[in-house]
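Subgroup meeting minutes
Present: P.N., E.W., G.H.
Scribe: E.W.

1. P.N. recapped why we're keeping a running log of single-chain structure predictions: easier to compare across weeks, and new members can see raw inputs and outputs side by side.
2. G.H. added today's entry (447 aa).
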Amino acid sequence: MGTISLCAMALLLGAAATAVAAPGASNGADAGPRAPSQPSVDSPELARLGSYAVGVRTITLVDRDAVDVVAPHGDRTLMVDIWYPAESRPGARPEVYRASLQAQPPSPPVPFTMPGIAVRDAKPTDGHYPLVIVSHGRSNATAALSWLTENLASKGYVVAAIRHEDPLRSDLREFPEILMRRPLDVAFVARSLQRSLAEQGQIDPARTALVGYSMGGYAVLTAAGGALDPNSAAFKRVPDNLLAPFAQGGARREETLVSGVRAVVAIAPWGGAQSAWGTSGLASITAPLLLISGDHDHTVDYTTGAHAFLEAATGAQRYLLTFRGAGHAIGFDPAPPEMGHSLWDISWFEDPVWRKERVIGVSLHMITAFLDRYVKGDESRAAYLDGLVPDAGTGQWLAPQGTDYGAYSPGGSGVTLWKGFQRGYAEGLELQHREPHSVAALRSESP
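Output recorded in log:
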């Protein structure tokens, strides 16, 4: 259905022009603002940057003869930002990301910049790394997710974030278009990169993860196997029955699916209030699932959203990390200065209750543990996820006398403070865990 453009192949195959500095080398205390991917000192253990320097490039992919609401048959062009482990050279200049977000109508979009650690078009290091596909929220920008994309690349992942280029919210076709295209975009980009990057020896296509924020959460849950319900309220918002072939029982549903998925992360995922997958569609997901949400999310709703998804995805090993009191803006970087002049603008980035650096640190820690375990197969990470007290604030650690105040909990026998967290810095968090229905049934039948 789709093909990779010549522009994309040239960028992917071409030699890099510049080497990259080591992570954080140009973003220290004396070198300007800290990049969002560099976690604050109060972050849990696994949030810290990895050992790889980071490169970034932008490619163009063309999905030929794509079907969508705006143009039912035509070529769909997508730009994709790719972060990857790269060779290091001290003194290389890190990227400053530039993007814009919609302002409160009728004002024009607000441009902003975000400091990074990656170097544009740096030479990639050799290695068959896991591939992570990232889908942003409605009318969002990939630049606002650099806290995650750069950090994961420094830990040995190739991270591809799709610029979905959503129609303006004033366009009556905007919302149906997103519902239609999001899973198809994720699946198309994943297939394209699994093929091209594997041919170059950069990734292992059998180790793929999907990460989505807000509407991107809907996209990755669907692309991971969630079957859309033809009778749902969401389905009825797409005109001319265009979504029908891609829903449960549809002849083209396979086009929404990604192969080789080892893990799925959905941050503040959309779809619950619209019953996008009905009562049973999420049970089709078998890859391990990490849901991250605030329980005061008034945009997508916590009760019918992430919390309901935890119970509905019965075919998967699944976790729900809850930021108590947090709303919807947990998926973005901290607000840049350009976004600090109106409540509308800053609300894209900042939560009314939680400090953003704190949200980022906790999220990076949990996502790293989850992906390392289920995508890379590192079972040592299980201790950061399993057997934890549900309410992190009740965890205890009687640290030996003389233990540094900033030391991380070691977990293990007699320690209930979540492994990798610092004393006094686990408040307001909850982690729920559910096993696949088949595993839970076997446990209940055991004598």
